[in-house]
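Quality-control log, excerpt.
Job 1 of 2 completed; input and output follow.
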Amino acid sequence: MAVTPSGSAAPSEGGIVLPPVPLGLRRPMIFAAVVGVLSLMATGALHRLLLGILICAGLLIGLANTKLTQLAAMRITSSETPSKQKMALSAASRLVVISTVAIVIGFLLRPNGIGIFFGLAVFQVIQVLHTTLPVLKGLRQQS
């Protein structure tokens, strides 16, 4: 599995050319905004606007986490001594901070606080679909 720094595909060990993985955040941001607006409309109609706001907050935190992950990966891999330990520590620290913030908000603003977890989960689904579907489509076209 090899992707060149420009994002283009490179042949892997078995001779399979893997399609490039989309790394931009434009589409996930658009989908998250659409989901956020729809959640605000739905929760507003149910007179639970705080729930919709917290769903949007979860989506925003997920987007920020993805951007911070990209920046950390670029910073660590471009250093003279990149290491898996630095990458793991970076990921673990972000996970602890995000989890702590979400748990505190969820607890303090219950029952609407569950919205922040819902927003985080929905953003992860958006991000996974954004990165895997183009790769699967490219692999299908090769076979």
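Job 2 of 2 completed; input and output follow.
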Amino acid sequence: MRKWLLIVCLFTYNWSLSQSENTYLKIRNISINGNKKTKEHVIHREMTLHEGDAFPAQKMDSILLQQRLNIFNLGLFNEVTVNIKNWEEDSLDLHIQVHERWMIIPVPIVKFVDRNITEWWKNYNHNFKRLQYGALLNWGNFTGRNDVLQLGISFGFAQRLDVGYSIPYFNIRKEKVGMSVAFSMLRTRRIAYNTVDDKLAFMYYGGSWQQKKIELSTQVSYRNAIHNIHYFNASYGYTTISDSVKHINPEYFLDGKQKQHYFRIGYTFVADHRNIRSYPTQGWYVSTKFTNYGLGFMKTRMTSIGFQFSKYNQWKKYPRFSTATMIQWNFSWPRKQPYNLQYIKSLGYDENIVRGYELNVLDGQHFLLFKNEYRFRVFSFQLNKMKKLKSKSAAILKSSLAYLPLNLYITAYFDAGYVWDTYFTDNNNQYKNKWQFGYGVGLNFVTFNSKLLRIEYSVNRYLKKGVYLHFTQPI
């Protein structure tokens, strides 16, 4: 009797499990609250669920989480919640609550013209004449369509004007094609004319302008899927240098030229499956890019192609722990290239750097870069989640201040890179054409509008040690 009872119970369990696996839930209605400026269709565009769609009941948690992350990655909101309402049998409503960020940010410009703070502090004795100062208006979500208007003007080390506008899509029906335009003007009395001893060498001759530059660029984007996007860009640039720069480095524009003008075209494909783009802990990212200067008929000619793959993992049993890994490769030709385009395919610029070599630049035609990082989240803090404040500080909890996050991570990392160079072989630059590596530990602070501050202690291959500050994610 017990044997038959056990068989009946197992049959009933398997039947109910099968029914659960085959159950689909239908979405009757989707409501959105809290989007005072953002258009609703901007939020709907990021979702894979829409009114009338059905999804497997057993995957409900993961599907709703993906909706929340997709909306959050717009970069428009401090907080996003997705809740179920009016669940009746096999149908339900979705309620999305968002809290918009402050997107109009007029800020003074006070920044370093050097590649990082450490270079400014150590190589140039923290000379305040190397600061750039001015004003920047960064008006995000300008018309409520996640578009951005930028206007910046600055003085100091250089005089610069930047104007730009971008919109992620302008065809409202299909919502796939976007566009951006930008214009910039620059003139400076100080210029990095060459690389000597694996460091940038600057020159300054009184009040004369060493470089003048204008550039006009445009970009069209095509987003055929939530996580995939194609970029097509074109630009025109015109740059002149002084006689002094031309004489001290005839290869600045190649062949002793004093003027450079070029047309540039490019294509980039990005597949972004990271959970939180500002500081990912799960998912992966792939990008490929192609850039051509000169279009085959102008005197300034260079072509480069690049590839990047990043992978992020979070431990299921210990979600405070996560890892990040990246491989990046860049190849360019011809062998003979103007010095002023080195930043595109060399190590030492932006985050294309082996940590521990922040003071150095490794010029070349090709590079290969590996990065590995292990992270532990110490705490995640937000005022609106503190129970003690809910009854005493209602005014604060209703403001944007309550939604500003503060996350602290402890990190350990190891980087390695190699630069191939067969053209710029002078000036005692010894770090290229050989493997370089660096390792260390750091603290990462992720806070207001997903801003990041990294404090890292790094050691390189030659046991040179240092503490370095950065404001972007390394991987």
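Post-run check on job 2. The first strand starts at residue 24 and ends at 33.
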